[in-house]
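Deliverable D4.2, example record:
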Amino acid sequence: MQEREGGEARGVEEVVDRLATKYPGVERAEIEKIVAEEHQSFDGHPVRDFVPVLVEKHAKTRVKHLAAHETQD
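Output generated by the structure prediction step:
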């Protein structure tokens, strides 16, 4: 069980890295906050296998939106 949780945590950390690389105009701290919020939204769900993928999908949408507004300002 702990091995799966560790894998999930590593997967979520990799999401932060990928989004930070893809959206360099958005502060890493903001990306970490968004990813943490999205990850937390899956708390209590029994099936955990795809959580990092789902977190990335939802967080990417938010970060992309934020990056678009950063370039307009």
